[in-house]
Recover the amino acids of this structure.
């Protein structure tokens, strides 16, 4: 199978759907003439023209709301945030408009749109450019939140997100855009809300999502050398969460570690921990452990980056603790 | 009301268009319906039949009346939470608006919106919105969709003077002009952002100059007369339909009541309110109609009776309608019919 970059997979998803439906358009900073801040939309202005690939001023609140209004009136906008850190100045339109209008109008106006862009840390970018808000958006009913971790998932899930009739938050990563992975030539769609078991194992389940899952794969390899068989679940979607797949796995392995690039308080890992203790309490042979980022803003120096993020060592340590080894 | 120094074009207060007897009749009927509807709402709020926040339109009726008469049925309207009159004037049956105020399942938003969130896709009413200024980018987006499809519909995006201080307005004005969107921004300047007068929120007392920062055609309009509002809107609509982009209208009006039902409006004098009542849009239209012999006193008496019957019917309809089933809480959140909500 051919191998393409994460950004190319996203571009294929956008372009394939835009060719089929003239109501789909892309709106954001630098998406057109600059070919995308991270080159996701490279060449799309040439193919689709300025009417459908729209450069905006730096005004996230305004263009996010313009996207929601266009969705109310029958279009299917894709709004690109250069990063989700900047989505905070637009969050009123996401939470108070996109996530609410279908309900407030008694089901008259749905919002078929996608807000997409990179999330999380991406090196030494300092505190304001290194945040992960997956759990913030996942907290809000009315939204769906997708966090794909590889090119194959990125394409299949973005195509589903674009066709979805509800607003979808689609979170990528600056540090994944260059990642290569196998993506079939032919079209395919992946379901929103379904997790996938990436490697089967018997001793411990590790649940993760997004870019940080790469750390989990490395940890799993290392643990295999120590004779510990790890089952890795990629959530793919954090609203809704596929609890069934997690719980089934925990019933088999009896141990759970959750790895998440986000602050610990009220995170996706807290939520999963609640659900697993409620639904699989008797199956657990050890307390659930999690590896999150540290409970601080991220500082600039490389030592801070290393200390802050989940690492292979931290994951290995957490797994060994639930194995009592 | 503050004294304005106007930098923008103050539209001539003299009415140039010859309006027909039918237009006046329809204006009066609509405005009387809005007025009596809101008076009844206030009364029902006092009886706790209507709950939550409730913002009345009394005094501002000419703005909506003149706007609706100058637009087509397929033009789009969006506003803030002071939205009962917009809903009624756009043709949503007043019984459905009243039922929504009661929170009944027969309301125009199925009891999910309440006073602040009236919607009707059928009537191109894109809603009442509760975050001050939040509907301004939405209005531009609605217009963008029509422009994108090559339609000639125009969006009327209304907000209060308080919203003019939100960042959303400034970002939207900039993009709406940049893309020449077919949208008319109306600030219904009733002089008070909640309880804070315009003078206490800005050094720029003339709200119409806000448009100048974006080179947007901007006009000041007397909002106490449907004629002046109609003329200003008609001109702006023409500009938008031709593809010449947005217009910003500062429509000067006045609300007799407080910001919401819980506001006794102690921040202004009795004299100020009484002064405005002399310019009451219903009285002004009535005088014109009598003067032009479009109607006699009997016609006005009959109109009162007719509107009273509509209001009574609306209240009865609302009273007799059912509450939504609690299970409907999980409906209309997602289009996806089998969304797996977390439920204990």
């Amino acid at each position: 199978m051919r191998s393409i970059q994460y950004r190319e997979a996203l571009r294929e998803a956008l372009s394939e759907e835009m060719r089929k439906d003239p109501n789909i358009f892309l709106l954001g900073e630098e998406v057109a003439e600059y070919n995308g801040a991270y080159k996701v939309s490279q060449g799309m202005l040439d193919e689709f023209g300025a009417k459908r690939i729209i450069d905006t001023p730096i005004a996230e609140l305004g263009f996010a709301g313009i996207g929601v209004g266009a969705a109310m009136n029958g279009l299917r906008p894709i709004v690109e945030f250069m990063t989700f850190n900047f989505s905070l100045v637009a969050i009123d339109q996401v939470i108070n408009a996109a996530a609410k209008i279908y309900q407030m109008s008694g089901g008259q106006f749905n919002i078929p749109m996608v807000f997409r862009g990179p999330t999380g840390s991406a090196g030494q970018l300092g505190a304001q450019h290194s945040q992960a808000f997956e759990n913030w958006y996942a907290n809000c009913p009315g939204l769906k939140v997708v966090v794909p971790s590889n090119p194959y998932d990125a394409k299949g899930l973005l195509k589903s997100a674009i066709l979805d009739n509800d607003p979808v938050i689609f979170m990528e990563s600056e540090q994944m855009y260059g990642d290569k992975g196998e993506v079939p030539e032919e079209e395919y769609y992946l379901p929103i809300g379904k997790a996938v078991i990436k490697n089967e194992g018997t001793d411990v389940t590790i649940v993760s999502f997004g870019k940080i899952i790469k750390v989990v794969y490395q940890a799993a390899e290392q643990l295999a050398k120590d004779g510990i068989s790890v089952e890795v679940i990629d959530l793919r979607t954090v609203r809704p969460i596929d609890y069934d797949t997690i719980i089934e796995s925990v019933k088999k392995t009896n141990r759970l570690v959750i790895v998440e690039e986000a602050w610990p308080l009220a995170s996706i890992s807290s939520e999963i921990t609640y659900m697993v203790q409620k639904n699989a309490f008797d199956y657990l042979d050890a307390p659930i452990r999690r590896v999150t980022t540290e409970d601080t803003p991220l500082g600039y120096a490389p030592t801070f980056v290393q200390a802050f993020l989940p690492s292979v060592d931290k994951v290995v340590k957490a797994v060994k603790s639930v194995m009592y080894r | 009301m503050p004294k304005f120094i106007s930098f923008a074009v103050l539209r001539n207060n003299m009415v140039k268009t010859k309006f027909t007897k039918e237009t006046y009749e329809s204006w009066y009927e609509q405005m009387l319906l809005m007025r009596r509807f809101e008076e009844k709402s206030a009364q029902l709020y006092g009886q706790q039949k209507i709950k939550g926040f409730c913002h009345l339109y009394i005094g501002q009726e000419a703005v909506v009346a003149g706007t609706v008469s100058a637009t087509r049925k397929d033009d789009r309207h969006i506003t803030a939470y002071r939205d009962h009159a917009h809903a009624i004037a756009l043709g949503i049956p007043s019984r459905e608006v009243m039922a929504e105020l009661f929170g009944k399942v027969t309301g125009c938003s199925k009891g999910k919106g309440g006073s602040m969130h009236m919607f009707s896709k059928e009537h191109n009413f894109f809603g009442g919105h509760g975050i001050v200024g939040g509907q301004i980018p939405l209005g531009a987006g609605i217009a963008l969709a029509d422009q994108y499809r090559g339609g000639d519909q125009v969006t009327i995006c209304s907000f209060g003077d308080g919203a003019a201080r939100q960042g959303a307005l400034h970002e939207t004005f900039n993009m709406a002009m940049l893309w020449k969107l077919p949208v008319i921004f109306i600030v219904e300047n009733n002089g008070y952002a909640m309880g804070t007068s315009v003078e206490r929120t800005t050094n720029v007392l003339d709200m119409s100059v806000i448009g100048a920062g974006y080179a947007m055609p901007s006009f000041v309009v007397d909002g106490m007369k449907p004629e002046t509002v109609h003329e200003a809107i008609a001109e702006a609509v023409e500009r938008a339909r031709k593809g010449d982009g947005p217009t910003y209208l500062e429509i000067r009006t006045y609300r007799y009541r407080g910001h919401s039902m819980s506001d006794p409006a102690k921040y202004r004098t009795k004299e100020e309110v009484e002064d405005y009542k002399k310019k009451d849009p219903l009285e002004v239209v009535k005088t014109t109609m009598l003067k032009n012999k479009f109607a006699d006193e009997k016609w006005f008496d009959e109109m009162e009776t007719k509107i009273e019957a509509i209001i009574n019917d609306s209240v009865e309809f609302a009273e007799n309608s059912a509450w939504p089933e609690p299970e409907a809480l999980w409906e209309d959140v997602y289009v996806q019919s089998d969304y797996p909500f977390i439920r204990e």
About this structure: The radius of gyration of chain A is 20 Å. Residues 22 and 126 of chain A are 40 Å apart (CA to CA).
